Amino acid sequence: MTGDQARLGRLTEASVDLRLSDVTLSGSPRVGHIRGRITVPADALAVALRSSAGSLPVSGVVTDPSSGTLVITLGQGGLGSVTVRPSLRDGRVAYSLEDARILGRPAPERLTRTIEETLSKQNSRRQDPSPLGVSSLDVTSAGVVATVRADDVTFGGKDR
Fold this sequence. Notes:
Blueprint: E1 2-8, E2 11-24, E3 30-40, H1 42-52, E4 58-64, E5 69-74, E6 80-89, E7 92-102, E8 105-106, H2 109-124, E9 133-140, E10 143-154
Antiparallel strand pairs: 1-2, 2-3, 3-10, 4-5, 5-6, 6-7, 7-8, 9-10
């Protein structure tokens, strides 16, 4: 199953490439196994960050595959930047601050603390349950790629 412009919670424009096996469509529909990848492009991350970053004026996101980080530009013309590293914590995506700059110089400690507090709140925020477990996360030129899997997923009822 493949698709573009998928919506995953607050994220939109994701690309989905999933393989479903042991599919039952009669009675209580279920899938025995789901394996695949979900790619969230940098532009989709920027849109999601704009809606959840509070007072931070997010203007864009660029992936840096060589370092495994995302560079978030702030303000018009990129007056500032925040570099974060996505990772998996307890099966959930979390972000840690790598660097913060204003006009190319290190950001003041007060701003850095505010960003870290915002990331901490974001990381601890309740996420809607999903039957798909994320087994790995990679930053690529296409965006953030999550390798996902699930077993024994029932639709229209509770997962077993």
